[in-house]
Every structure is written in C-alpha cells, then in structure tokens.
Amino acid sequence: MKKLFLALLCAPLLAFASGAELHLDKAPDKANDLPALQRGAKIFVNYCLNCHSASYLRYNRLQDIGLTEEQIRGSLLFTADKVGESMTIAMQRADGKAWFGAPPPDLTVIARARSSEFGSGADWLYTYLRGFYRDESRPTGWNNVVFANVGMPHVLWELQGEQVLGADHKLQLAKPGKLKPAEYDAAVADLVAYLNWMGEPMAEFRKNLGVIVLIALAVLFVFAYALKREYWKDIH
C-alpha cells in the first residue's frame, strides 16, 4: 500500500518530466509584420474557420492589421453577413464530438492557452502544424508528433504534402504538396502569427504604451528630483 501511495504521488511529476522532453521549434516573430498577419488571416478563414470558431473576435477587428472593410467583406466574410459579427461557425458541438471525438475548440485564445501549458504558445502551434504524419491506425488517417492521437485531421495537407514517421522517429516528406517545405513553413508562420495576434490584438499597443509611460516617468523623475533638491537645499 505504501508503494502504491508513493507511485500515485510521483505520477504527476513523471508526467511533467515526460512533457518537458517535448522539443518545440522556434516560431518566427511576425508580430509587427502586417502583410504576414493578413496572409495568416486568409489561411485561417479558408482552412480553420470551417470547424473552429473564433467567437471572441469580430471580423471588423481585422482592420487593426491593415485590412479595409471592403477587403474583409470581399474575401474573408464567409461565415457572417456583416463585418461587425463574430467569427462563428455553423457546426454544432454535438456534431463535432461525433465526427472528431471531441468538439473542435474555439481558437480565439488558443495561443495564450498553449502558452500557459507549454511555455510559448506560438512555438507549440508552429511545431504542431508542421508535425502531422500519415497514420492509418487513426480514424482520420493522421497523427501528430506534438499531440499524439490527435482527433484533428491535417487540414493543410494539400499545401504541405504527406509526411511519414521514419524508424528513427523523424518526419520524412513522402508526398510533396503544393508548397515547397520552406514555403509551407513560412505559411504556417503567418498563420501562427495571426493566431497569436488574435489572442490579444492590443498586445503591441500595450507594449508601446508601456515604453512611453516608462519614458514619461523617467522625465518626471528628473523634475521631481530637481524639485526635491530645491526644497531641501537649506536643510542639507
């Protein structure tokens, strides 16, 4: 009984240790690259928004990454009638659970969610979206090196092609896709940048505002120190 208790006590630590061995590729930083964010939004709408919603973001928020209302309405407004509507989908949660084993999650804050669990959410998504491989034992025919036995199929397979897991447990491109490997990695980087932006659209503004506030405080400190010296000059 004592050994069983110790085993149960150590199980979470062992699980954490095994998770720490996961290698994540570094996602390119495209937070300030508006064309990349726009390309990522296009990929998201065309490939992800069929099953995954982004219900905490409205289409008109895409104006923050340089798109006009006309551009949004003309090429990105597929699941709504007005640009002021949220990025919702028609799929019901019950249908998603029946088809994939679990309802596809809302992706509005997916980068932030993965960040809390795995360090960098952008790095996790970048590695995950490039880590699919053919596995005929799975219901969808796909598996993933980052998310084992994932229920999600590889929706970008036409772009990437088909990978297989070699005997050395490394991915190998068995069937090329429409994009070359470097081009596919760049497309995924754009998508990840958009997903990261979507989780906190005001992040860059917040950072820039923080720098301005610190500079203002530094300037005020100079005046405050000078005023303090003036008040205390007769005492010292």
From TrEMBL:
Cofactor binding description: Binds 1 heme c group covalently per subunit.
Residues that, per the record, bind heme c: 48, 51-52
Main location: membrane
Residues covered by the Cytochrome c domain: 35-199
Pfam families linked: Cytochrom_C1
Necessary cofactors: heme c
GO terms under cellular component: membrane
Signal sequence segment: 1-17
InterPro entries according to UniProt: Cyt_c-like_dom, Cyt_c-like_dom_sf, Cyt_c1
Keywords, in A-Z order: Heme, Iron, Membrane, Metal-binding, Signal, Transmembrane, Transmembrane helix
Entry GO MF terms: electron transfer activity; heme binding; metal ion binding
TM region(s), chain numbering: 209-227
Location of the protein in the cell: Membrane
Protein name from the UniProt record: Ubiquinol-cytochrome c reductase cytochrome c1 subunit
